[in-house]
Queue: 2 jobs
Job 1
Amino acid sequence: MDRRKFLKTSALGGSAAAATSLAAPAYAQGKRTLTMVTTWGRGAAGVFDAAAKAGELITQMSDGDLTIDVKAGGELVGPFEVFDAVTAGQADMYHAADYYFLNQSPALAFFTAVPFGMTATEMHNWWYQGNGMKLHHEVGEIFGLKSFLCGNTGSQIGGWFRKEINSPEDFQGLKFRMPGIGGQVLGKLGASVQNIPGAETYQALASGAIDGTEWIGPWADEKAGFFEITKIYYTVAFHEPGAGLSLGVNKEVFDSLTPAQQAMIETAAGYTNVWNLSQYLNNNGAALDRLKASGVQVYDFPDTVWDAFGAATKEVYEEMRQDELFAKIYDDYFASMRASAGWLEQSENAYTAQRNRVMG
């Protein structure tokens, strides 16, 4: 069946066969090794750590009945081939940013990050207390997956540039690495957008194959060494205000596990989600100070550029909402974001503003 046609016509949340008509599941017996493929270079700060942490926790909680063999991007399949490898049964699970797979479904972007979208706190509110988890599972099941949030980078940076960005026109012809819907927004501004695996980005920037790149944030960017190539660094950005990472498990493999083992995977993913966000938040401030000490100049995009980001984002969303599944999740996602933001603005954000004013 054509995957795109199925995505457009399938009704999520439709009635399933009654559970009472199904035979009792047969669980696989004995010790098992499950292969996790990832989009990350081995040792990539934060992102590979999250994959390794989830694998380690599952192995420990199961007393070794499930051993998770974590593969870096390229060790078994290419970084951007992990989704298809797991849906095809060539690997058991993947760890990645789901927005790398927009060709499979643009709706997957919501489980990583979308322009002018959710912060990490808002994302967690939606996923754990709203409809986010349910929608993630439903999209995953279209492709034979059981999907979980399994990491969050927090707010990502605007990127590294060879020249300052003073106006929207400065993006014309700029060869820039940015995946996801954010890349499509920059394309509207005339950029030549590249979707390059993280492990290949340093060389692409050093060789001049690209003029600039976003990656994650100060700590991961410092580890990647981009400051050795350029000293122009934009921090606050529009495209990934709280980027989630996903663990996608082949649905047949997941269903073959005992309920206890399934709960171990879900629990490991949830723990990793919080652990990974804390890892980034704990390391970013000191890393930014070190970058500045090394001569990196930190810039903010001017308001005219922010306005152009916003106008281009609205144009992209209008086009993408032609996809029925994307539109459905878009409406739920932004309704949840507005509800969370309204309370946070009156509580936590108001408090931190006063704390900073009073305490300095």
Note: The chain has a mean pLDDT of 93.
Job 2
Amino acid sequence: MARGRAADFESTREEMLAAAAQLFARNGYPGTSMNEVAVACQVSKPSLYHYFKDKHELLVQICEGHLQTLSSLVDDVLAQDLAPEPRLRALIQGFVREYGESQYQHRVLTEDVKFLNDEDRTRLRQVERRVVAAFADAVAAVRPELAGARLEKPLTMLLFGMINWTFTWLRPDGELSYEDVAPMVADLFFGGLGAVRTSSDNALLQETAQ
């Protein structure tokens, strides 16, 4: 009789993926061995192979898991049926906050996706395109004339250029958190530098609204 999975199989697997993502983010995918992942997970190497057949599968699952989280975030925002501007703001701020929660996974997706095989990379690119399309549609909903000029996609890519690389400069122990930066990105995209509010400005607005 085949042995069934342990009750904590999925939670253990997720913990291993998180540990591997941290190692890949810090040392790079090529510079990380399965032995190092096993040590970080505090399991034997054979135990690690019980959950993942090889290092490539680890990379696939890290990238796919992060993209599916982002795709679900898009679905959650769209399900709220918000007006155009609040919808785009919710998407922007939701993504910035999620990047803060998944810094290692996001770095791996950004820097190590090139090490995936063609089949897996193509499949994940399809999820990425769906996410980008949702943002482009949101941009066009705010400024419908942009769609006629075919500018909604370039503007969306400029927006992602602003938020995708936040991890390269925003320190986890710094003065600003991802929660602080999220509304700044939205304000900057909508209104330029003059629209960015400080934390004291936001506090004043909240007091006025009460």
Note: The chain has a mean pLDDT of 90.
